[in-house]
Specification:
Lytic transglycosylase with a strong preference for naked glycan strands that lack stem peptides. By secondary structure, the chain is mostly beta strands. The chain has one domain: Beta Barrel (Barwin-like endoglucanases). It has 1 helix and 6 strands. The longest helix is centred in the C-terminal third of the chain and has 7 residues.
Length: about 110
């Protein structure tokens, strides 16, 4: 009996270094301040954290705005975003370091550092 359609094997936690992905980045709305993330940590706007659908909690990811070349390092501590085309949801301060929050979305490339 088959368990699924994919033949891809899950990655071990240490196998993610160098993983790259491109798409859009969004940022957490103000209503999420001091709410629990999927990892159990409290979300805070001033920390350099992010949500990703599958990267292990604690992964350090370099997020680069493809329009201006600015980058920021963030730590994954939540799951999401669950909107087509979005690859990462950044804390408000991390987003503001690489782009203007008034834009709402940025085109980015992400790379797992560790």
């Amino acid at each position: 009996m088959l368990a699924g359609c994919s033949t891809a094997q899950p990655r071990a936690a240490g196998d993610w270094a160098g993983y790259k992905e491109s798409g859009q980045a969004s940022f957490y709305a103000d209503k999420h301040q001091n709410q629990r993330t999927a990892s159990g940590a409290l979300y805070r706007h001033d920390l350099s954290t992010a949500a990703h659908k599958k990267l292990p909690f604690g992964s350090v990811v370099k997020v680069t705005n493809t329009s201006n070349g600015k980058s920021v390092l963030v730590t994954i501590n939540d799951r999401g975003p669950f909107v087509r085309g979005r690859v990462i949801d950044l804390s408000k301060s991390a987003f503001s370091r690489i782009g203007n929050t008034a834009s709402g979305l940025l085109n980015v490339e992400i790379e797992v550092i560790r």
